[in-house]
Amino acid sequence: xxxxxxxxxxxxxxxxxxxxxxxxxxxxxxxxxxxxxxxxxxxxxxxxxxxxxxxxxxxxxxxxxxxxxxxxxxx
Length: 75
Fold this sequence. Notes:
elongated
């Protein structure tokens, strides 16, 4: 059974799924608990294999914090 890592990040009201080891394999779901199935289906379709022959590990990606914003002096 093939196993793949799936990264998941929030994109507005959706969760965007990406399989880093398979360029071009993306999907999206409204609910995070659906990510496993959607990712397995996208991989199976791309590789033309059975859905049951794909195993995934879903890893949520936290948003990166940018540089701190300058604070205004309080008068």
